[in-house]
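Protocol step 4 of 6: structure prediction from sequence.
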Amino acid sequence: MSYQHTIFLNLPVANLQASIEFYTAIGFVQNKKFSSDTDVMMSLPPVGATQPQAHEGPIKLMLLSHSSYKSFLPPNIDIANPKKVAQCLICLSRPSKEAVDEMCEKGAETGGKKDIREKTEVEKQMDQVGMYWRV
């Protein structure tokens, strides 16, 4: 395989096993070669990929225990409390509206929160022109 740019999104997680279950439910695959008791790598497979191509997609998550994540931060910086502070918005494209809905439902079934607010009128109009999304 030729070189491709890859995104590694490092996320601090309070419960590693629950996080693995959540991301597996929405389509990620654990890469056990790059996982340990404190850190887990998850890959989003290319559309239609099967083993062993599941890890060839350019999007990777590094689920890091709080102690591991903290080890990468400067001494005076703390991990943000995700119940009080939004650090980023993560958007994943899907091939259809139904696939977006399915991903959201699977995520909610494994502990995620879905549809936490009503869409504005502008956001509803965006849905109508092909920019369908869920919160």
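Step 5 (inspection) to follow. Residues 1-75 form a domain with the 2,3-Dihydroxybiphenyl 1,2-Dioxygenase; domain 1 fold (CATH 3.10.180.10).
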